[in-house]
Specification:
eight-stranded mixed β-sheet; about 300 residues; about 35% helix
Length: about 300
């Protein structure tokens, strides 16, 4: 499938394309941002965006077709994911129920429901300002030695820092690049990078069903993954596929560690917590002793001689 290059992108529907080009159980990670079924080609009116550098031809899905559309492409994703393979779907809230219904109709299992918050929501007067996306983290069940990849410490060596980096409310930076050609509603590569690194390894195959500006593809290639993508809009396909050849593959950075003073402070606290837990465990009455006391209290004459 990826013999000539580290990537392959097809200018066709991902539903037909996956059926035609992608084998069962062959994908390690899917990261994709499908159309939301909310007339996404007209959102610039609400956001007051300058669309002069945006590639035309964005293709949304009519609301009347969204449920079946979601079921079809998600069913194909479930087929092509390897056992233990992961999938992240970025979704708005309007048609989120269709995405979730489709996921529940597969053999995939939910891992996390992540909220990606941003600061560029449309201003409103009579309701709260929408300022988040949903990132649905699902996976195919493990099978034998094929386990789900999750690199908890790729960024930080210490659990405290890793903990805060993995909270299920994440910041979504705006992909603001004035003067550059871009796709409509394009996600930041810095945002995508986090999920690619947590849920895949170098040499793994990453799939994006709705390639758009191919931000997932560039991110995957930059960090030593292979990439398969689909993009139905011919304008976007022609504009962004050549950018994949310009990606410079980078070595993995060393995980960030706390300085020696901070690490010693944390380890001292942890040792104290371990001792406290050990004391509490010793103070809990033994189960057999507790039962004996209950018996004696219930029948005080049990051990008296006749």
């Amino acid at each position: 499938m990826l013999l000539e290059k580290l990537y392959k992108v097809y200018n066709q529907s991902c539903i037909d394309g996956m059926r035609e080009h992608v084998l069962d159980n062959s994908i390690d990670l899917i990261f994709t941002d499908p159309p939301y079924g909310i007339d996404g080609d007209e959102l610039d009116v609400h956001y007051h965006r300058d669309e002069s550098k945006v590639v035309p031809g964005y293709i949304d899905v009519p609301l009347t077709q969204y449920a079946k559309f979601s079921q079809d492409w998600i069913t194909e994703c479930a087929r092509v994911l390897r056992p233990g393979g992961s999938m992240y779907i970025v979704s708005g809230y309007t048609n989120l129920h269709h995405i979730l219904n489709a996921l529940h109709n597969t053999d995939l299992i939910e891992i996390n429901h992540i909220i990606a918050k941003y600061s560029f929501g449309v201003s409103t007067k009579n309701k709260f300002v929408s300022s988040h996306y949903h990132v649905l983290f699902w996976a195919k069940p493990d099978k034998g030695r094929q386990k789900r990849t999750f690199n908890s410490n790729w960024k930080y060596t210490d659990q405290k820092d890793s903990y805060h980096d993995r909270l299920t409310v994440q910041d979504m930076p705006r992909d603001y690049k004035p003067g550059e050609v871009k796709n409509k509603n394009q996600l930041s590569e810095d945002f995508i990078e986090k999920f690619v690194k947590y849920s895949s390894n170098r040499g793994d195959v990453v799939l994006d069903c709705f390639g758009g500006g191919l931000t997932t593809g560039r991110t995957a290639l930059r960090w030593g993954r292979k990439f398969v993508g689909f993009e139905l809009n011919k304008n976007a396909y022609d504009a962004f596929v050549p950018t994949l050849d310009t990606v410079e593959q980078l070595p993995d950075p060393d995980p960030i560690s706390p300085d020696a003073k901070e690490l010693a402070k944390r380890n001292k606290l942890r040792e104290g917590w371990r001792k406290d837990r050990a004391k509490k465990k010793l103070s809990v009455p033994n189960e057999s002793t507790t039962k004996s006391k209950i018996i004696v209290m219930a029948n005080p004459n049990l051990f008296e001689s006749n």
